[in-house]
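Below is one such record:
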Amino acid sequence: MRLGALLLSCAALAAPSLGAQGRPALAWERVAPVDWQAGAGPSREEVSAALEPSAGPLAAQLTGDGTLSLRDGRGIIRLKTGLPGRPLQVWRDGGLPLVPTAGTWSFPADSPLSQGLGGLRWVAEDFRPFLRGLLWILEDGEGFLSVVHPATARVIHLPLPPGRDLRLRFLADRLEVSAGAVDRGAPRQWSIPWMGLLPRLAALGPHPNPAKAGTALAPFPRD
């Protein structure tokens, strides 16, 4: 009897995650909540004007319906995917806003996270320069913040705290979220230190064993 229960448990773990109505779970439906810390109110700190947009051979294209495409310097699509919703607000690098929210932007291939967490200065007084090369997208449902790393063609989705009319601020030591409308008694302001997001940002780093690129003669190369 115990052996049967063990086999059933293993089968359940091996089965793909299911979302609503028994369909396969979407990427953002499988992520764990972020450890947001409730605060009394938004801080007075402003985003530094010293931040400059990065540039490079990679291109990230975002359409109004939430379709994201990443291309390398040769124009080859490395990733094409849909996001949780339509882009409501978009930032690049360490918090530089992009207007309009649909367009094509250039990104470098040598961003700090392209070296993994080893390329970051964890004790830096201002962590935002180490966010160079990232694209941040708040969708219109305000449930998720999607973070894109064109250098590795990877995307993560960060569940946001409850509230409506969310506003994000990229501060030196943390990411801050303020809500324009909340349920009675609920906090209006939340934040998380950049150090607290490092485990999530690590997923944007390079894959330890990247897949071999195909060619016209061998579209599915073998090891």
